[in-house]
Automatic annotation (TrEMBL):
Classification via Pfam families: Glycos_transf_2 (PF00535)
InterPro entries reported in the protein's UniProt record: Glyco_trans_2-like (IPR001173), Glycosyltransf_2 (IPR050834), Nucleotide-diphossugar_trans (IPR029044)
Domain of life: Bacteria
Keyword list, A-Z: Transferase
Species whose genome carries this gene: Mesorhizobium escarrei
Claim: Cell cycle is one of the keywords in the record: no
Protein name, per record: Glycosyl transferase family 2
Every Glycosyltransferase 2-like domain range: 10-132
Coiled-coil stretches noted in the UniProt entry, renumbered to this chain: none
Amino acid sequence: MEHPKSPQVSLGMPVYNGENFVSEAIRSILEQDFDDFELVITDNASTDGTADICLEFARRDKRVRYVRNARNLGAGANFNRAFQLSTGEYFKWCAHDDLLSSGFLTDCVRALDANARHVIAYPRLLGIDETGLLTSYVEGGLPDMGGSSPAARFGLMVAAPGCDAAMFGLWRRDSLAKTTLHESYYGSDRALLAEMALLGTFVHVPNAILYNRDHPRRSVRLPNSERLAWQDTAGCSAKPFEFSRRIKHLVAIAHRHRRTAPLGRTLFHLIAWLSDPLVFARLCLEAVGAVSPRLREKLRGAGLGALNHVGSDRSPG
């Protein structure tokens, strides 16, 4: 029996209780001017109307596949499941609350097709509010990786601020399959991007636009305990050591890809990043928080106040 041909692009939409915005997100995908794709929705055992909404889209459009987890796996595992259930040459994660420009896939596919060294084609990221109106937020671009070695690219991504555009860009599947994927701590996506940088370059596609929605229930705005449970329902803790776990993950990544980039070179870039005073202070605050969360918050507040004071002293006028 002849098997159906895999689409060129797979989109994975991990979702949990996303009835607020998931319809708009799915419609922006189905209205793309590129149609050789599948949309795999992995529902993390939602308790709201998410299932009914997604099943209706799947009934009306054969490109949509809805998979419901028997239990909430946590965000990291659900992101991985969306990738594992997909088949396309290129892959993109989609947030249930974001929107895409109509030519997003066309532009990103063209960029990856043009150069086999590119492992991620990433868009311009603009902020929108709950109603879909543009805000003033524009995510800055990533450093140019063109002539950099794998170890240097790793160092660039370890230290890079603002990575949502790359995280929700279009990824080369065979490269992503060589990675550790997401781990079960908040911030593992940053380590995953650094790992992808070891495997190839990222290309900016400014005509592709990701409209990134800000609202009170997005993960970065959740209280710490809720955010931990969102990321990992089985292992959430009041003392998560998220930053320490990222460092450990980055060391494991450097060792995993030591044939691609010598271990000493990747660790050099990692140590250089850790030597930054603000990065080192964050690590120290996490250690203090293990003993006294209240003292950690006091020190963190004092540090932010000092930074604001320095900023005001340096402002013109």
